[in-house]
Amino acid sequence: MNPSTASNVHAFDKGLLARMTGALGDDKVIGRTALELGQAFGELLPGMYKAETGHDIAIGYAGFKTGLRNELIAGLGGGVLLTDASLRNWCQDFQIGCDSPVLITLVEALLGAEPTSIGEPQPRSMSQIEIDVAVPIFEKIADVLRLAVNAPGGVEPVVSRPYNSETRPKPDPAMEDIYAASIDMTIGLGPVLSTFSVIVPQSVLLKTQIVPVKGAGQGNKTKTEWTEQLEEQVRRSAVTLEARVRLESLTLDTISRLQPGDVIPFHDGQDVRVEVNANGRELYVCEFGRSGAKYTVRVKDTHGSEQDILRHIMS
């Protein structure tokens, strides 16, 4: 190749190549499929969630966005719970993201709080117990996809354990990103309105045909085995407790000269007051004691009701 020929060689336009290979489509075509999927979510999810949780959860279509997949996922922002999912014979790799405020509100509601009395939480990373409770929310979204798209074989979707968006690994710069679309839906419980998004490669959406769906028709069920299992799972979750005992005040000079074997007396003279907490939340007021060879604490008072304690631990 001579220099004049080399100067005429140009990199092939990535977008044009994607259109030629079916990986990038027209926004009107993508938008039509996104709207049909949004209608399926709006038709099926409220009944499913009502049957499972006993609470009215409103679902509405909020539009769609197109772009590179990693950019769409990053655009969801912080305080979002994500999951990676697949549905054989349809899409091997798609993502579902949901804002944390509505999930936090759902946890509170399942623990007995009235949704209308819950103030809107700020977006934040969710605890492992809260993530456990949120798992079925993502599974139902994937179930609607299974019912709505032309995925032959009747296979079940595979949904990974959700994780906080802040912990998602950064994209590998050596891996080429793909064009995708984000189908955005509002999800509301009580006064709290959030968004969940399903991010799917455009190459999949361009081949997708939406199957007409009918409502779940189970809105009258207010208590199900799923709800009972969630409540039991919350109550059986292991929590690390920490007991703190107040010691006598010492001068900084004395503290700096303490050596192994030195003794610091408790502040209390008789019944030693102990504060027990979990996750930084004060739970119980106890007294210090001993049972055989083990030191113990005996609960004397609590910081709130059983429901208050559960909410404190989980937040």
UniProtKB/TrEMBL annotation:
Flagellar motor switch protein FliN-like C-terminal domain ranges (all copies): 232-301
Compartment list: Bacterial flagellum basal body; Cell membrane
The keyword Membrane is annotated on this UniProt entry: yes
Protein topology in the membrane: Peripheral membrane protein
Transmembrane feature ranges: none
Keyword Cell membrane: yes
Major localisation: other
Record key words, sorted: Bacterial flagellum, Cell membrane, Cell projection, Chemotaxis, Cilium, Flagellar rotation, Flagellum, Membrane
Sequence similarity: Belongs to the FliM family.
Job description of the protein: FliM is one of three proteins (FliG, FliN, FliM) that forms the rotor-mounted switch complex (C ring), located at the base of the basal body. This complex interacts with the CheY and CheZ chemotaxis proteins, in addition to contacting components of the motor that determine the direction of flagellar rotation.
Protein name as catalogued: Flagellar motor switch protein FliM
